[in-house]
Amino acid sequence: MTASSGPGIALMGEGLSYLAGARLPSVVIDMQRSGPGLGNIWPEQSDYNMVVKGGGHGNYHNIVLAPGSVQEMFDFTRKAFTLADTYRMTVFILSDAYIGQMMEPVDITSEVLHGDHKDWAVYGDAASRANLISSIYMNTALLRAHNEHLQEIYRQVEQEQVDFQQTLTEDADVVFVAYGIAARITLGVVHKLRGKGIKAGLFRPKTLFPFPRRQIHDLALQGKTLAVVELSNGMMADDVQLAADGQTRILRYLTMGGETPTVEGLIADVTRDLASLEWGGGAHA
Amino acid sequence: MLDQHNSEQKHVRYGKARAFYPTFERKGSGDLVTHYCPGCGHGVAQKLIASVIDDLGIQDRTIFLSPVGCAVFSYYYFDTGNIQCSHGRAPAVATGVRRTLDDAIIISYQGDGDLAGIGMTEIVHAANRGENITVIFINNAIYGMTGGQMAPTTPVGRKTLTTPFGRELIRDGRPIGMAELMESLSTPVYIERCSLATVKDVMKTRKAIKKGLQNQIDHLGFSFIEILSPCPTNWRMTPVQACEWTKNELAAVFPLKVFRESHGKKPPTSLITPFPFLDDASLVELLVNTGDVQNEPQNSLGITQRVKISGFGGQGVLSAG
Hints:
The structure holds two protein chains of two kinds. By secondary structure, chain A is an alpha/beta fold.
Protein backbone atom coordinates (compact mmCIF):
# COMPACT_ATOMS: atom_id res chain seq x y z
CA MET A 1 0.00 0.00 0.00
CA THR A 2 1.17 3.51 -0.74
CA ALA A 3 -0.38 6.96 -0.76
CA SER A 4 0.33 10.27 -2.43
CA SER A 5 -1.27 13.08 -4.37
CA GLY A 6 -1.13 13.71 -8.12
CA PRO A 7 2.58 14.48 -8.58
CA GLY A 8 3.60 11.38 -6.61
CA ILE A 9 1.13 9.14 -8.42
CA ALA A 10 2.40 10.44 -11.77
CA LEU A 11 5.93 9.44 -10.71
CA MET A 12 4.65 5.97 -9.86
CA GLY A 13 3.16 5.48 -13.34
CA GLU A 14 5.83 3.03 -14.50
CA GLY A 15 5.52 0.96 -11.34
CA LEU A 16 1.73 0.89 -11.58
CA SER A 17 2.03 -0.52 -15.07
CA TYR A 18 4.47 -3.18 -13.84
CA LEU A 19 2.09 -4.07 -11.01
CA ALA A 20 -0.68 -4.59 -13.55
CA GLY A 21 1.59 -6.61 -15.84
CA ALA A 22 2.85 -8.84 -13.04
CA ARG A 23 -0.64 -8.94 -11.46
CA LEU A 24 0.51 -7.87 -8.04
CA PRO A 25 -2.25 -6.84 -5.63
CA SER A 26 -1.75 -3.35 -4.26
CA VAL A 27 -3.67 -0.49 -2.73
CA VAL A 28 -2.84 3.09 -3.71
CA ILE A 29 -4.44 6.22 -2.32
CA ASP A 30 -4.52 9.42 -4.34
CA MET A 31 -5.61 12.57 -2.50
CA GLN A 32 -6.12 14.79 -5.48
CA ARG A 33 -4.62 18.26 -5.41
CA SER A 34 -4.61 20.91 -8.11
CA GLY A 35 -2.43 20.76 -11.18
CA PRO A 36 -0.95 20.73 -13.68
CA GLY A 37 2.64 20.81 -12.44
CA LEU A 38 3.05 21.88 -8.87
CA GLY A 39 -0.36 23.61 -9.05
CA ASN A 40 -1.38 24.02 -5.45
CA ILE A 41 -2.49 21.89 -2.51
CA TRP A 42 -6.21 22.64 -2.73
CA PRO A 43 -8.55 20.01 -4.12
CA GLU A 44 -9.26 19.14 -7.70
CA GLN A 45 -10.56 15.96 -9.29
CA SER A 46 -8.18 16.27 -12.18
CA ASP A 47 -6.31 12.99 -11.59
CA TYR A 48 -9.41 11.18 -12.87
CA ASN A 49 -7.98 10.36 -16.30
CA MET A 50 -4.56 9.38 -14.91
CA VAL A 51 -6.01 7.02 -12.30
CA VAL A 52 -9.23 5.74 -13.87
CA LYS A 53 -7.74 5.27 -17.34
CA GLY A 54 -4.52 3.70 -16.07
CA GLY A 55 -1.67 6.18 -15.55
CA GLY A 56 1.11 3.97 -16.88
CA HIS A 57 1.71 2.31 -20.24
CA GLY A 58 -0.12 -0.75 -21.51
CA ASN A 59 -3.63 -2.20 -21.70
CA TYR A 60 -4.62 -2.20 -18.07
CA HIS A 61 -7.08 -0.88 -15.53
CA ASN A 62 -7.06 -0.16 -11.84
CA ILE A 63 -10.14 -0.63 -9.70
CA VAL A 64 -10.96 2.89 -8.51
CA LEU A 65 -13.04 3.58 -5.39
CA ALA A 66 -14.31 7.11 -4.73
CA PRO A 67 -15.18 7.75 -1.06
CA GLY A 68 -17.51 10.60 -0.19
CA SER A 69 -16.97 10.66 3.57
CA VAL A 70 -14.45 9.76 6.23
CA GLN A 71 -16.46 6.63 7.04
CA GLU A 72 -16.15 5.55 3.43
CA MET A 73 -12.43 6.30 3.52
CA PHE A 74 -12.14 3.66 6.21
CA ASP A 75 -14.61 1.18 4.69
CA PHE A 76 -13.25 1.51 1.16
CA THR A 77 -9.65 1.04 2.30
CA ARG A 78 -10.60 -2.25 3.95
CA LYS A 79 -12.56 -3.23 0.88
CA ALA A 80 -9.66 -2.22 -1.37
CA PHE A 81 -7.36 -4.84 0.16
CA THR A 82 -9.95 -7.57 -0.36
CA LEU A 83 -10.57 -6.52 -3.96
CA ALA A 84 -6.83 -6.29 -4.67
CA ASP A 85 -6.34 -9.86 -3.44
CA THR A 86 -9.45 -11.19 -5.17
CA TYR A 87 -8.58 -9.89 -8.64
CA ARG A 88 -4.79 -9.50 -8.22
CA MET A 89 -5.07 -5.87 -9.27
CA THR A 90 -4.17 -2.41 -8.06
CA VAL A 91 -7.07 -0.78 -6.24
CA PHE A 92 -7.07 3.00 -5.98
CA ILE A 93 -8.82 5.13 -3.44
CA LEU A 94 -9.38 8.33 -5.45
CA SER A 95 -10.23 11.09 -3.05
CA ASP A 96 -9.42 14.78 -2.74
CA ALA A 97 -7.75 17.30 -0.48
CA TYR A 98 -11.03 18.16 1.31
CA ILE A 99 -12.30 14.65 2.02
CA GLY A 100 -8.73 13.78 2.97
CA GLN A 101 -8.58 16.43 5.70
CA MET A 102 -12.16 16.26 6.88
CA MET A 103 -12.92 15.24 10.47
CA GLU A 104 -16.02 13.10 10.95
CA PRO A 105 -17.04 10.32 13.32
CA VAL A 106 -16.08 6.88 12.07
CA ASP A 107 -17.34 3.48 13.13
CA ILE A 108 -14.31 1.21 13.13
CA THR A 109 -14.88 -2.50 13.13
CA SER A 110 -12.60 -4.41 15.43
CA GLU A 111 -12.17 -7.25 12.98
CA VAL A 112 -8.68 -7.36 11.44
CA LEU A 113 -8.45 -8.87 7.97
CA HIS A 114 -5.54 -11.04 6.87
CA GLY A 115 -4.64 -12.02 3.34
CA ASP A 116 -4.33 -15.68 2.45
CA HIS A 117 -1.15 -17.49 1.51
CA LYS A 118 -0.67 -16.87 -2.19
CA ASP A 119 0.30 -19.72 -4.47
CA TRP A 120 1.90 -17.31 -6.97
CA ALA A 121 4.08 -15.33 -4.53
CA VAL A 122 7.82 -15.65 -3.91
CA TYR A 123 8.38 -16.39 -0.23
CA GLY A 124 12.01 -17.46 -0.25
CA ASP A 125 11.17 -21.08 0.57
CA ALA A 126 11.22 -24.45 -1.19
CA ALA A 127 7.47 -24.44 -1.93
CA SER A 128 7.59 -21.14 -3.84
CA ARG A 129 11.02 -21.62 -5.44
CA ALA A 130 9.58 -22.16 -8.91
CA ASN A 131 7.57 -18.93 -8.79
CA LEU A 132 8.46 -15.95 -10.93
CA ILE A 133 7.11 -12.43 -10.59
CA SER A 134 7.54 -10.73 -13.92
CA SER A 135 5.75 -8.64 -16.52
CA ILE A 136 7.99 -9.47 -19.49
CA TYR A 137 6.74 -11.73 -22.28
CA MET A 138 9.13 -11.69 -25.21
CA ASN A 139 6.91 -14.09 -27.14
CA THR A 140 4.24 -11.97 -28.82
CA ALA A 141 1.64 -14.76 -28.76
CA LEU A 142 2.14 -15.17 -25.01
CA LEU A 143 1.90 -11.42 -24.43
CA ARG A 144 -1.28 -11.29 -26.49
CA ALA A 145 -2.77 -14.11 -24.40
CA HIS A 146 -1.65 -12.34 -21.21
CA ASN A 147 -3.30 -9.09 -22.37
CA GLU A 148 -6.49 -10.89 -23.31
CA HIS A 149 -6.57 -12.57 -19.93
CA LEU A 150 -6.21 -9.17 -18.24
CA GLN A 151 -9.17 -7.83 -20.25
CA GLU A 152 -11.25 -10.82 -19.12
CA ILE A 153 -10.48 -9.95 -15.52
CA TYR A 154 -11.47 -6.32 -16.11
CA ARG A 155 -14.75 -7.44 -17.70
CA GLN A 156 -15.42 -9.63 -14.67
CA VAL A 157 -14.73 -6.65 -12.39
CA GLU A 158 -17.18 -4.57 -14.44
CA GLN A 159 -19.85 -7.22 -13.95
CA GLU A 160 -19.27 -7.73 -10.25
CA GLN A 161 -18.08 -4.53 -8.62
CA VAL A 162 -20.04 -1.51 -9.91
CA ASP A 163 -21.11 0.52 -6.89
CA PHE A 164 -23.05 3.79 -6.63
CA GLN A 165 -25.55 5.69 -4.51
CA GLN A 166 -28.77 7.22 -5.83
CA THR A 167 -30.51 9.98 -3.87
CA LEU A 168 -33.98 11.14 -4.98
CA THR A 169 -33.32 10.12 -8.58
CA GLU A 170 -36.51 8.16 -9.16
CA ASP A 171 -38.86 11.06 -9.92
CA ALA A 172 -36.11 13.54 -10.74
CA ASP A 173 -36.09 15.63 -13.91
CA VAL A 174 -32.46 16.60 -13.42
CA VAL A 175 -29.97 14.14 -11.97
CA PHE A 176 -26.61 15.42 -10.80
CA VAL A 177 -23.63 13.11 -11.25
CA ALA A 178 -20.76 13.78 -8.86
CA TYR A 179 -18.27 11.97 -6.62
CA GLY A 180 -16.16 12.85 -3.59
CA ILE A 181 -16.31 16.42 -2.28
CA ALA A 182 -18.28 17.52 -5.35
CA ALA A 183 -21.04 15.06 -4.40
CA ARG A 184 -21.14 16.40 -0.84
CA ILE A 185 -21.71 19.94 -2.13
CA THR A 186 -24.20 18.76 -4.73
CA LEU A 187 -26.33 16.96 -2.15
CA GLY A 188 -27.07 20.37 -0.60
CA VAL A 189 -27.96 21.69 -4.04
CA VAL A 190 -30.39 18.80 -4.61
CA HIS A 191 -32.31 19.43 -1.37
CA LYS A 192 -32.49 23.20 -1.94
CA LEU A 193 -33.71 22.74 -5.52
CA ARG A 194 -36.38 20.35 -4.24
CA GLY A 195 -37.40 23.16 -1.85
CA LYS A 196 -37.84 25.40 -4.89
CA GLY A 197 -39.98 22.80 -6.63
CA ILE A 198 -37.33 21.53 -9.04
CA LYS A 199 -37.19 17.74 -9.02
CA ALA A 200 -33.47 17.13 -8.61
CA GLY A 201 -31.59 13.98 -7.65
CA LEU A 202 -27.99 12.85 -7.15
CA PHE A 203 -26.23 9.88 -8.70
CA ARG A 204 -22.92 9.30 -6.91
CA PRO A 205 -20.53 6.73 -8.40
CA LYS A 206 -18.65 4.93 -5.62
CA THR A 207 -16.59 3.08 -8.21
CA LEU A 208 -15.05 5.00 -11.11
CA PHE A 209 -13.62 1.83 -12.61
CA PRO A 210 -15.82 -0.06 -13.04
CA PHE A 211 -17.89 2.96 -14.06
CA PRO A 212 -21.68 2.67 -13.58
CA ARG A 213 -22.27 3.02 -17.31
CA ARG A 214 -25.46 0.98 -17.49
CA GLN A 215 -27.13 2.86 -14.65
CA ILE A 216 -26.26 6.24 -16.16
CA HIS A 217 -27.45 5.04 -19.55
CA ASP A 218 -30.77 4.01 -17.94
CA LEU A 219 -31.17 7.48 -16.38
CA ALA A 220 -30.48 8.99 -19.79
CA LEU A 221 -33.05 6.69 -21.43
CA GLN A 222 -35.62 7.94 -18.93
CA GLY A 223 -35.12 11.42 -20.37
CA LYS A 224 -33.60 12.89 -17.22
CA THR A 225 -31.20 15.76 -17.72
CA LEU A 226 -27.78 14.80 -16.38
CA ALA A 227 -25.73 17.51 -14.69
CA VAL A 228 -22.11 16.69 -13.90
CA VAL A 229 -20.50 18.60 -11.05
CA GLU A 230 -16.77 18.04 -11.08
CA LEU A 231 -13.54 19.70 -9.96
CA SER A 232 -11.79 19.18 -13.29
CA ASN A 233 -12.09 20.13 -16.94
CA GLY A 234 -14.76 17.46 -17.38
CA MET A 235 -12.91 14.16 -17.19
CA MET A 236 -15.73 12.18 -15.57
CA ALA A 237 -18.26 14.24 -17.54
CA ASP A 238 -16.77 12.70 -20.70
CA ASP A 239 -17.48 9.23 -19.29
CA VAL A 240 -21.02 10.28 -18.37
CA GLN A 241 -21.50 11.53 -21.92
CA LEU A 242 -20.21 8.22 -23.31
CA ALA A 243 -22.56 6.29 -21.02
CA ALA A 244 -25.53 8.49 -21.94
CA ASP A 245 -24.74 7.81 -25.59
CA GLY A 246 -26.70 10.76 -26.90
CA GLN A 247 -29.91 9.82 -25.11
CA THR A 248 -30.15 13.01 -23.04
CA ARG A 249 -28.69 16.46 -22.38
CA ILE A 250 -25.50 16.67 -20.34
CA LEU A 251 -24.84 19.84 -18.35
CA ARG A 252 -21.34 20.43 -17.01
CA TYR A 253 -20.46 22.42 -13.89
CA LEU A 254 -16.72 22.39 -13.76
CA THR A 255 -14.41 24.11 -11.28
CA MET A 256 -10.61 24.07 -11.41
CA GLY A 257 -7.64 25.54 -9.59
CA GLY A 258 -8.47 24.36 -6.08
CA GLU A 259 -11.75 26.24 -5.75
CA THR A 260 -15.03 24.53 -5.00
CA PRO A 261 -18.43 25.66 -6.22
CA THR A 262 -20.86 27.05 -3.65
CA VAL A 263 -24.34 25.64 -3.20
CA GLU A 264 -25.83 29.06 -4.05
CA GLY A 265 -23.66 29.47 -7.12
CA LEU A 266 -24.59 26.03 -8.43
CA ILE A 267 -28.30 26.65 -7.84
CA ALA A 268 -28.10 29.92 -9.77
CA ASP A 269 -26.25 28.26 -12.67
CA VAL A 270 -28.52 25.23 -12.81
CA THR A 271 -31.78 27.14 -12.65
CA ARG A 272 -30.49 29.45 -15.38
CA ASP A 273 -29.51 26.52 -17.60
CA LEU A 274 -32.70 24.55 -16.99
CA ALA A 275 -34.77 27.63 -17.90
CA SER A 276 -32.66 28.04 -21.01
CA LEU A 277 -33.32 24.39 -21.94
CA GLU A 278 -37.05 24.94 -21.50
CA TRP A 279 -36.77 27.83 -23.92
CA GLY A 280 -35.06 25.49 -26.34
CA GLY A 281 -31.56 26.76 -25.66
CA GLY A 282 -28.43 24.64 -26.05
CA ALA A 283 -26.64 22.80 -23.28
CA HIS A 284 -24.25 24.70 -21.07
CA ALA A 285 -20.73 23.81 -22.10
CA MET B 1 27.05 -42.03 1.19
CA LEU B 2 30.32 -40.19 1.43
CA ASP B 3 31.14 -41.11 -2.17
CA GLN B 4 27.80 -39.91 -3.34
CA HIS B 5 28.32 -36.63 -1.53
CA ASN B 6 31.76 -36.26 -3.07
CA SER B 7 30.52 -36.96 -6.54
CA GLU B 8 27.84 -34.35 -6.08
CA GLN B 9 30.46 -31.86 -4.94
CA LYS B 10 32.52 -32.70 -7.97
CA HIS B 11 29.53 -32.17 -10.19
CA VAL B 12 28.93 -28.74 -8.68
CA ARG B 13 32.55 -27.73 -8.88
CA TYR B 14 33.12 -28.62 -12.48
CA GLY B 15 29.62 -28.90 -13.92
CA LYS B 16 26.44 -26.93 -13.69
CA ALA B 17 25.50 -25.59 -10.27
CA ARG B 18 22.36 -26.97 -8.65
CA ALA B 19 21.13 -23.38 -8.29
CA PHE B 20 20.84 -23.33 -12.09
CA TYR B 21 18.02 -25.15 -13.84
CA PRO B 22 19.33 -28.29 -15.62
CA THR B 23 17.76 -26.97 -18.83
CA PHE B 24 16.51 -23.43 -19.38
CA GLU B 25 12.85 -24.14 -20.13
CA ARG B 26 11.80 -20.54 -19.58
CA LYS B 27 14.16 -19.51 -22.34
CA GLY B 28 12.47 -21.71 -24.93
CA SER B 29 14.69 -22.55 -27.89
CA GLY B 30 18.35 -23.25 -27.16
CA ASP B 31 17.58 -24.31 -23.63
CA LEU B 32 21.09 -25.64 -22.91
CA VAL B 33 22.91 -22.33 -23.39
CA THR B 34 22.43 -18.82 -22.04
CA HIS B 35 21.39 -15.85 -24.16
CA TYR B 36 24.64 -14.02 -23.33
CA CYS B 37 27.14 -13.26 -26.10
CA PRO B 38 30.40 -15.22 -26.26
CA GLY B 39 32.90 -13.68 -23.83
CA CYS B 40 30.26 -11.76 -21.88
CA GLY B 41 30.94 -11.40 -18.16
CA HIS B 42 27.32 -11.98 -17.11
CA GLY B 43 27.55 -15.71 -17.76
CA VAL B 44 30.70 -16.01 -15.65
CA ALA B 45 29.35 -13.85 -12.82
CA GLN B 46 26.07 -15.75 -12.71
CA LYS B 47 27.87 -19.09 -12.73
CA LEU B 48 29.89 -17.90 -9.73
CA ILE B 49 26.72 -16.79 -7.93
CA ALA B 50 24.99 -20.12 -8.61
CA SER B 51 27.95 -22.12 -7.32
CA VAL B 52 28.16 -19.94 -4.19
CA ILE B 53 24.43 -20.51 -3.58
CA ASP B 54 25.22 -24.24 -3.72
CA ASP B 55 28.16 -23.84 -1.35
CA LEU B 56 26.11 -21.97 1.22
CA GLY B 57 23.08 -24.27 0.90
CA ILE B 58 20.68 -21.34 0.43
CA GLN B 59 18.94 -22.29 -2.81
CA ASP B 60 15.44 -22.49 -1.28
CA ARG B 61 15.86 -19.23 0.59
CA THR B 62 17.28 -17.27 -2.32
CA ILE B 63 15.24 -14.68 -4.22
CA PHE B 64 17.07 -13.44 -7.29
CA LEU B 65 16.15 -9.97 -8.50
CA SER B 66 16.71 -9.49 -12.23
CA PRO B 67 17.33 -5.98 -13.55
CA VAL B 68 16.46 -4.44 -16.89
CA GLY B 69 19.37 -4.83 -19.28
CA CYS B 70 21.15 -7.88 -20.65
CA ALA B 71 20.56 -9.73 -17.35
CA VAL B 72 16.79 -9.21 -17.55
CA PHE B 73 16.39 -12.92 -18.24
CA SER B 74 18.37 -14.16 -15.24
CA TYR B 75 15.23 -15.99 -14.15
CA TYR B 76 15.73 -18.33 -17.13
CA TYR B 77 18.71 -19.78 -15.30
CA PHE B 78 18.38 -19.49 -11.53
CA ASP B 79 16.35 -22.25 -9.91
CA THR B 80 15.47 -19.92 -7.05
CA GLY B 81 12.61 -17.55 -6.32
CA ASN B 82 12.67 -14.86 -9.01
CA ILE B 83 11.42 -11.32 -9.37
CA GLN B 84 12.02 -9.27 -12.49
CA CYS B 85 12.26 -5.61 -11.45
CA SER B 86 11.58 -2.39 -13.30
CA HIS B 87 14.56 -0.45 -14.62
CA GLY B 88 16.90 0.54 -11.79
CA ARG B 89 14.53 -0.40 -8.98
CA ALA B 90 15.99 -3.74 -7.85
CA PRO B 91 17.29 -2.28 -4.53
CA ALA B 92 13.79 -0.90 -3.81
CA VAL B 93 12.24 -4.30 -4.58
CA ALA B 94 14.95 -5.88 -2.40
CA THR B 95 13.95 -3.54 0.40
CA GLY B 96 10.32 -4.59 0.07
CA VAL B 97 11.25 -8.27 0.11
CA ARG B 98 13.58 -7.74 3.08
CA ARG B 99 10.85 -6.01 5.10
CA THR B 100 8.44 -8.84 4.34
CA LEU B 101 10.58 -11.97 4.55
CA ASP B 102 13.12 -12.29 7.35
CA ASP B 103 14.77 -15.46 6.12
CA ALA B 104 15.01 -14.77 2.40
CA ILE B 105 18.46 -14.36 0.88
CA ILE B 106 18.11 -11.51 -1.58
CA ILE B 107 20.44 -11.05 -4.53
CA SER B 108 19.96 -7.68 -6.17
CA TYR B 109 21.74 -8.01 -9.52
CA GLN B 110 22.19 -4.93 -11.70
CA GLY B 111 24.23 -3.59 -14.57
CA ASP B 112 25.80 -0.13 -14.73
CA GLY B 113 23.05 1.53 -16.78
CA ASP B 114 20.47 0.12 -14.40
CA LEU B 115 22.29 0.82 -11.13
CA ALA B 116 24.40 3.92 -11.80
CA GLY B 117 22.06 5.51 -14.38
CA ILE B 118 18.31 5.29 -13.94
CA GLY B 119 18.56 3.53 -10.57
CA MET B 120 21.04 5.82 -8.81
CA THR B 121 18.44 6.94 -6.26
CA GLU B 122 17.38 3.43 -5.30
CA ILE B 123 20.89 2.08 -4.78
CA VAL B 124 22.08 5.08 -2.74
CA HIS B 125 19.09 5.01 -0.39
CA ALA B 126 19.05 1.22 0.02
CA ALA B 127 22.76 1.38 0.88
CA ASN B 128 22.25 4.32 3.20
CA ARG B 129 19.49 2.46 5.02
CA GLY B 130 21.89 -0.43 5.43
CA GLU B 131 19.40 -2.95 4.07
CA ASN B 132 20.51 -6.50 4.77
CA ILE B 133 20.85 -7.45 1.09
CA THR B 134 23.64 -8.38 -1.32
CA VAL B 135 24.08 -6.20 -4.38
CA ILE B 136 25.99 -7.56 -7.37
CA PHE B 137 26.90 -4.69 -9.67
CA ILE B 138 28.09 -5.70 -13.12
CA ASN B 139 30.11 -2.80 -14.53
CA ASN B 140 30.93 -3.18 -18.21
CA ALA B 141 31.07 0.56 -18.79
CA ILE B 142 28.41 0.54 -21.50
CA TYR B 143 24.71 0.04 -22.19
CA GLY B 144 24.81 -3.50 -23.58
CA MET B 145 21.25 -4.54 -24.32
CA THR B 146 20.38 -1.37 -26.22
CA GLY B 147 23.43 -1.65 -28.45
CA GLY B 148 26.43 0.11 -26.90
CA GLN B 149 25.55 3.63 -25.78
CA MET B 150 27.61 5.65 -23.30
CA ALA B 151 26.92 4.66 -19.69
CA PRO B 152 27.58 6.66 -16.50
CA THR B 153 30.64 4.41 -16.11
CA THR B 154 32.14 4.82 -19.61
CA PRO B 155 35.76 6.00 -19.40
CA VAL B 156 36.66 9.44 -20.75
CA GLY B 157 37.73 9.26 -24.39
CA ARG B 158 35.94 5.99 -24.99
CA LYS B 159 34.02 5.74 -28.26
CA THR B 160 30.46 4.47 -28.05
CA LEU B 161 27.36 4.76 -30.24
CA THR B 162 26.38 8.00 -28.55
CA THR B 163 29.93 9.32 -28.21
CA PRO B 164 31.32 8.57 -31.70
CA PHE B 165 34.32 10.84 -31.05
CA GLY B 166 34.82 9.60 -27.51
CA ARG B 167 33.41 10.58 -24.11
CA GLU B 168 34.30 14.19 -23.43
CA LEU B 169 35.01 15.33 -19.92
CA ILE B 170 33.48 18.78 -20.37
CA ARG B 171 30.33 17.53 -22.07
CA ASP B 172 29.75 14.16 -20.43
CA GLY B 173 31.51 14.29 -17.06
CA ARG B 174 33.68 11.61 -15.53
CA PRO B 175 32.76 7.95 -15.12
CA ILE B 176 31.05 7.34 -11.79
CA GLY B 177 32.91 5.13 -9.34
CA MET B 178 30.04 3.38 -7.59
CA ALA B 179 32.20 1.54 -5.07
CA GLU B 180 33.79 4.89 -4.13
CA LEU B 181 30.34 6.42 -3.82
CA MET B 182 29.17 3.56 -1.61
CA GLU B 183 32.25 4.11 0.54
CA SER B 184 31.08 7.65 1.27
CA LEU B 185 28.14 6.15 3.17
CA SER B 186 28.68 4.84 6.68
CA THR B 187 26.16 1.99 6.55
CA PRO B 188 27.42 -0.59 4.01
CA VAL B 189 29.34 -3.36 5.79
CA TYR B 190 31.20 -4.68 2.78
CA ILE B 191 32.28 -2.96 -0.42
CA GLU B 192 34.66 -4.56 -2.92
CA ARG B 193 35.45 -4.04 -6.57
CA CYS B 194 36.49 -7.19 -8.45
CA SER B 195 37.02 -8.14 -12.06
CA LEU B 196 36.45 -11.01 -14.45
CA ALA B 197 39.50 -10.24 -16.61
CA THR B 198 41.73 -13.15 -15.55
CA VAL B 199 41.26 -16.55 -13.90
CA LYS B 200 42.79 -15.13 -10.74
CA ASP B 201 40.32 -12.24 -10.81
CA VAL B 202 37.43 -14.66 -11.34
CA MET B 203 38.42 -16.67 -8.29
CA LYS B 204 38.70 -13.48 -6.21
CA THR B 205 35.27 -12.43 -7.43
CA ARG B 206 33.84 -15.78 -6.32
CA LYS B 207 35.23 -15.19 -2.84
CA ALA B 208 33.75 -11.69 -2.77
CA ILE B 209 30.31 -12.98 -3.77
CA LYS B 210 30.52 -15.62 -1.08
CA LYS B 211 31.48 -13.01 1.50
CA GLY B 212 28.64 -10.75 0.44
CA LEU B 213 26.09 -13.53 0.78
CA GLN B 214 27.55 -14.77 4.06
CA ASN B 215 27.17 -11.24 5.43
CA GLN B 216 23.48 -11.37 4.60
CA ILE B 217 23.06 -14.81 6.16
CA ASP B 218 24.74 -13.41 9.29
CA HIS B 219 22.40 -10.36 9.27
CA LEU B 220 25.35 -8.01 9.04
CA GLY B 221 23.82 -5.59 6.56
CA PHE B 222 24.43 -4.14 3.13
CA SER B 223 27.09 -5.71 0.88
CA PHE B 224 28.10 -4.19 -2.44
CA ILE B 225 30.21 -6.11 -4.94
CA GLU B 226 31.17 -4.30 -8.10
CA ILE B 227 32.43 -6.58 -10.87
CA LEU B 228 34.29 -5.21 -13.89
CA SER B 229 32.93 -7.29 -16.70
CA PRO B 230 33.86 -7.62 -20.39
CA CYS B 231 31.34 -6.81 -23.13
CA PRO B 232 33.15 -7.87 -26.33
CA THR B 233 30.13 -7.31 -28.58
CA ASN B 234 29.59 -3.66 -27.72
CA TRP B 235 33.25 -2.91 -27.17
CA ARG B 236 33.83 -4.24 -30.72
CA MET B 237 36.52 -6.66 -29.50
CA THR B 238 37.22 -10.36 -29.40
CA PRO B 239 36.59 -11.98 -26.02
CA VAL B 240 40.36 -12.17 -25.42
CA GLN B 241 40.86 -8.50 -26.29
CA ALA B 242 37.92 -7.61 -24.02
CA CYS B 243 39.54 -9.38 -21.08
CA GLU B 244 42.80 -7.56 -21.80
CA TRP B 245 41.01 -4.21 -21.98
CA THR B 246 39.17 -4.93 -18.73
CA LYS B 247 42.46 -5.72 -17.03
CA ASN B 248 44.55 -2.89 -18.48
CA GLU B 249 42.15 -0.03 -19.16
CA LEU B 250 38.96 -0.48 -17.14
CA ALA B 251 40.77 -1.48 -13.95
CA ALA B 252 42.91 1.65 -14.35
CA VAL B 253 39.78 3.81 -14.17
CA PHE B 254 38.12 1.62 -11.52
CA PRO B 255 40.83 0.28 -9.19
CA LEU B 256 40.25 -3.21 -7.80
CA LYS B 257 40.21 -3.22 -4.04
CA VAL B 258 38.33 -3.92 -0.86
CA PHE B 259 36.83 -0.57 0.08
CA ARG B 260 35.31 -1.76 3.33
CA GLU B 261 35.01 -5.01 5.18
CA SER B 262 33.23 -5.59 8.45
CA HIS B 263 35.18 -8.77 9.29
CA GLY B 264 32.03 -10.25 10.78
CA LYS B 265 31.43 -7.28 13.04
CA LYS B 266 27.79 -6.41 13.42
CA PRO B 267 26.70 -2.83 12.75
CA PRO B 268 25.20 -0.89 15.68
CA THR B 269 22.07 -2.56 17.04
CA SER B 270 19.98 0.45 16.03
CA LEU B 271 20.61 -0.45 12.39
CA ILE B 272 19.40 -4.02 12.63
CA THR B 273 16.58 -3.81 15.17
CA PRO B 274 13.45 -4.85 13.34
CA PHE B 275 10.23 -2.89 13.55
CA PRO B 276 8.08 -3.83 16.55
CA PHE B 277 5.44 -6.30 15.47
CA LEU B 278 1.94 -4.81 15.43
CA ASP B 279 -0.36 -7.69 16.33
CA ASP B 280 -4.13 -7.73 15.82
CA ALA B 281 -4.93 -6.69 19.38
CA SER B 282 -2.63 -3.65 19.35
CA LEU B 283 -3.90 -2.67 15.89
CA VAL B 284 -7.50 -2.76 17.10
CA GLU B 285 -6.55 -0.79 20.20
CA LEU B 286 -4.75 1.78 18.07
CA LEU B 287 -7.67 2.27 15.70
CA VAL B 288 -10.81 1.70 17.72
CA ASN B 289 -9.91 3.76 20.77
CA THR B 290 -9.22 6.84 18.68
CA GLY B 291 -12.98 7.31 18.27
CA ASP B 292 -13.70 7.39 21.99
CA VAL B 293 -12.93 11.04 22.54
CA GLN B 294 -15.34 12.53 25.07
CA ASN B 295 -17.42 15.54 24.04
CA GLU B 296 -17.87 17.76 27.06
CA PRO B 297 -20.24 20.75 26.99
CA GLN B 298 -18.37 24.04 27.43
CA ASN B 299 -19.56 27.30 28.91
CA SER B 300 -20.06 29.97 26.27
CA LEU B 301 -17.42 32.68 26.24
CA GLY B 302 -18.36 36.20 27.23
CA ILE B 303 -16.41 38.15 24.65
CA THR B 304 -15.90 37.78 20.92
CA GLN B 305 -13.18 35.25 20.11
CA ARG B 306 -11.02 35.25 17.03
CA VAL B 307 -10.19 31.84 15.68
CA LYS B 308 -7.50 31.08 13.12
CA ILE B 309 -7.81 27.73 11.43
CA SER B 310 -4.58 26.54 9.85
CA GLY B 311 -2.78 23.40 8.86
CA PHE B 312 -4.36 22.70 5.52
CA GLY B 313 -1.47 20.75 4.06
CA GLY B 314 -1.30 18.45 7.05
CA GLN B 315 1.86 20.26 8.10
CA GLY B 316 0.33 22.06 11.07
CA VAL B 317 0.98 25.48 9.56
CA LEU B 318 -0.65 26.89 6.49
CA SER B 319 2.51 28.11 4.87
CA ALA B 320 1.13 28.37 1.34
CA GLY B 321 -0.93 31.50 1.86
